[in-house]
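Troubleshooting log. The previous run stalled partway through. Resubmitting the same two chains, unchanged.
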Amino acid sequence: MNIELIGEEIPLLEGIRTARAIRRLKPDPVPIALIRKVCEAGTFAPSGGNRQPWQFIAVTDRERRAYIASLYRETFTQYIQPAIEAAKAPDYPEAKRRNMKAAIYLAEHLHEAPVHLFVAGWTRRGAPQSQALFPAIQNVLLACRAVGLGASLTTAHRAHGEAIDRYLGLDPEKTPSIALIPIGWPKGRFGRPTRRSIDTCFFENVVPAQSKD
Amino acid sequence: MNIELIGEEIPLLEGIRTARAIRRLKPDPVPIALIRKVCEAGTFAPSGGNRQPWQFIAVTDRERRAYIASLYRETFTQYIQPAIEAAKAPDYPEAKRRNMKAAIYLAEHLHEAPVHLFVAGWTRRGAPQSQALFPAIQNVLLACRAVGLGASLTTAHRAHGEAIDRYLGLDPEKTPSIALIPIGWPKGRFGRPTRRSIDTCFFENVVPAQSKD
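Second attempt completed without errors. Output:
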């Protein structure tokens, strides 16, 4: 497998349109060089003053992933319970129900995901510069799409953020982890995610009064 | 010009690696359908609970752009003055000096940029969900790269945020604008931006003690 050549063909706009969150992942290992490649794509994102505030920590060790998954599951159960109840209503939208099922699957199987990729970043004036990391995070998600890896963006680990940061060797005050991206070979297929039409949210010059909601 | 076909060929990873900020723009007009296309790419970004909190406002009207540029320039002059002084030092890094020159150029010529694209988003519990918008913003920047448009990410308009939001027809409490992306045909070329090596910020399992900042 020549890592340098993998995923170099897929067109940018097609990739953007079909990079849906993939939460059902095979447990098979992923070459660390391929994870390095998708993280390198992250580094080409813009950042204020080109400060490049990111760090990428790819957790591959089985025991470490089990520990992270146990903390994640704990948060997820508390956080999602009201949503699971709400989803029992007969008029609950089908697309949302599918998303929730996938999120529950991820929480139950997180320990099996071969890579737990954390993106961490510098703080500034005591506050995490999380918005400075999200362009890089999006690049990583798109690069996963390009090389054929399933990935999704989660932040639920933040409920145990300080413990997890220390476990990763990060100083929670200086370089907290902002996102956890579980990565692996996809069980399902890439595809266009459900979105409202661009015409509901695109305006020239001024937003008309009736669209303000 | 068939808008649907423009930019569909460029590969994703190559686009990510060469989407440097382009701040020198030609004043020539850009078809609004092409701006709609790059914003549509924005809508395929992930958002928590698939809430899709974004609105895109493309300001093309000449007088409106002049007004926005005047407010932007005012902020920029105050904000950048210390940096301009610092850049006079003989040991100031050349790459940073080039970036600063381009930022000054943008501030002086913003009224000429044919499109001032604002990305606005819903607030939640009174706070702007800016981090929820940055994946979409990065998609827009990459889509500009794909279709051959120059673009860069700025947030300096926020110093006059409330005035600008009202001018755009946005409620500053409910859907503040987060980013201003000036867009136009590039005067220069796309290219690989200056970045430190991925090996300085990529770690497996644990960040070693000596790499913590």
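Takeaways: Chain B touches chain A through 76 residues (CB under 8 Å). The two ends of chain B are 49 Å apart (CA to CA).
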